[in-house]
Write a structure and sequence with these properties.
By secondary structure, the protein is of the alpha/beta class. The protein is built from 20 helices and 17 strands. The protein folds into 3 domains: 4-77, no CATH class; 84-94 and 358-465, Alpha-Beta Complex (Aspartate Aminotransferase, domain 1), CATH 3.90.1150.180; 103-351, Type I PLP-dependent aspartate aminotransferase-like (Major domain) (Aspartate Aminotransferase, domain 2). The strands form 5 sheets. It has a 7-stranded mixed β-sheet with strand order 4-12-11-10-9-5-8, with helices on both faces. A 4-stranded antiparallel β-sheet has the order 13-14-17-16, with helices on one face. Helix 8 (154-166) packs across helix 13 (310-318) and helix 18 packs parallel to helix 20. The two termini are 33 Å apart. Bound molecules: pyridoxal-5'-phosphate. Residues 153-155, 158, 181, 185, 226-227, 229, 259, 261-262, 293, 304, 398 line the site of pyridoxal-5'-phosphate (PLP).
């Protein structure tokens, strides 16, 4: 039995490690600070390993330890925020960054970010301009609104609109619409944070026009309508239409604000998706102000778009919170480029990744599975069972909760490692792969798999199964 405690004294000193051949060479490409931190961590780990009677005895030769440090540095040097391959089939995965951007948007970001831009400069007049002008006209054209502005995200848009329209008074909301989205966006909390008193009306499943009418008093600043975008109440339900709400509110001289969530700009029912009101339809009911996200079904960058009547938008713009929540130039560049594609809906469907993936026909998905399967079989040999099965995908991101997109996936069952081990290894690959498990199989859904990433996926699987 070696004396493990005595071995502690033979751990290489940090200076000696840093002077080793491997680490001196590494200093040419990696920051000294990272190498030093990695060396300290590796030596700490080795010390713990020596003190643990159960652990195997480590190799304490300087060059061997330096190798470990180099591996550690490589891990630490990886960017924290990085690309992942999404094979979950969930199009708008909030954890995976929601909507991928179209090429025009990427180009616009590069163009604007690389140098200077006319972000707040009016080139015609040669004087100070406003940053939202770059997208306002487009938003109005595409939605039928009179005026529009853009903030950081939809949660910010709702908060700002509430704060600007309420003046510290109250807003009426149906009990069927007091939603929570993504764990942190809760209507009652957002209202409280905006300084609006919440007046609940109706019940969970039914709210009538009379409920709203009875609740309006001199303290009422507005009516808030919330699109229940991530769930549906089925069965005996009743909600008041936008038209009825707008008529009631306008008789009382108060505005109606609708949080539409996803904000569709074109009707997607031709692609087998459930009926959702478009922004144009929502505004067409007479509702004064509509807010929606830029990175849900719209398929653009993170943004909160506020569109509606000019007077109301003016109030929103003047509120101090508007400055605090303003959009940055990169998002505005991407948003403008994405919105431009919508001027030709056919182009939008072809070029905006979210819309393209959403409308992929089953045959196309089947074809892609059939192309991928033999390649998988070549790489994995007899280490996994792979087959093509029919299944459905979800939209995600709290949009179209009941929509099931029919499709095809490759179902993979590893023979030598557990599914848990497989998903863990896939996440730690050079380019991480995230997928879903169903009926004891790992599913690879081609819908969300960028075709250019197929080789990376194959490489990752090869790494895992053929080492
Ligand atoms: C998603 C959603 C939000 C939050 O939007 P973000 O862009 O994530 O801030 C708010 N309201 C509804 C109805 C939503 O669906």
């Amino acid at each position: 039995m070696p004396d493990r405690r005595a071995l502690l004294r033979t751990l290489p000193a940090i200076d000696r490690l840093l002077g080793s051949r491997i680490l001196s060479k590494l200093e040419e490409t990696q920051p000294h600070l990272l190498i030093l931190e990695a060396a300290q961590k590796v030596v700490d780990d080795l010390r713990q390993q020596l003190l643990d009677e159960q652990a195997p005895l480590p190799d304490l030769e300087t060059e061997a330890v330096a190798e470990l440090v180099a591996v550690r540095v490589a891990l630490m040097a990886k960017p924290s925020l990085r690309k992942v391959i999404n094979v979950t089939g969930t199009l708008l995965h909030t954890n995976l960054g929601r909507a991928p951007l179209c090429n025009d948007a990427l180009q616009a970001i590069k163009e604007v970010a690389q140098g200077y831009s006319n972000l707040e400069y009016d080139l015609d007049a040669g004087q100070r301009g406003k940053r939202f002008t770059h997208v306002e006209e487009l938003i109005c054209k595409l939605t039928g609104g009179e005026a529009a502005t853009v903030v950081n995200n939809n949660a910010g848009a709702v908060m700002l609109a509430l704060a600007a329209l309420s003046g510290g008074k109250s807003a009426i909301v149906s009990r069927g619409e007091l939603i929570e989205i993504g764990g942190s966006f809760r209507i009652p909390d957002i209202m409280a944070a905006s300084g609006v008193e919440l007046v609940e009306v109706g019940t969970t499943n039914k709210t009538h026009l009379k409920d709203y009418a009875d609740a309006i008093d001199k303290e009422t600043a507005l009516i808030l309508k919330v699109h229940t975008s991530n769930y549906r109440i089925l069965g005996f339900t009743e909600a008041v239409s936008g038209e009825e709400l707008a008529e009631l509110a306008h008789q009382q001289n108060i505005p109606v604000l609708e949080d539409l969530g996803s904000g569709l700009l074109i009707d997607l029912t031709p692609y087998g998706l459930p009926r959702e009101p478009t922004v144009r339809e929502a505004l067409g009911t007479g509702i004064d102000l509509v807010t929606f996200s830029g990175d849900k079904l719209l398929g653009g960058p993170q943004a909160g778009i506020i569109v509606g009547n000019k007077d109301v938008i003016d109030k929103v713009r003047k509120h101090p919170m508007a400055r605090a929540l303003r959009s940055d130039k990169l998002s505005l560049a991407a948003l403008e480029a994405t919105l431009r594609l919508y001027l030709d809906p056919q182009k939008a469907l072809q070029q905006i990744p979210t819309l393209r993936m959403l409308s992929l026909p089953v045959e196309e998905l089947q074809r892609r599975c059939e192309k991928l399967l033999p390649q998988l079989l070549t790489h994995l040999g007899d280490q996994a069972d792979c087959s093509i099965i029919e299944t459905t995908a979800t939209v995600g991101g709290g949009a179209l909760p009941l929509a099931e997109l029919p499709g095809c996936v490759i179902a993979l069952a590893p023979k030598q490692i557990s599914l848990n081990e497989l998903t863990t290894r896939l996440r730690s690959c050079e380019t991480a792969v995230v997928g879903r498990i169903q009926d004891d199989r790992f599913l690879i859904d081609p819908r969300t798999l960028n075709q250019e990433d197929e080789d990376l996926l194959l490489k990752a699987l090869k790494q895992i199964f053929c080492r």
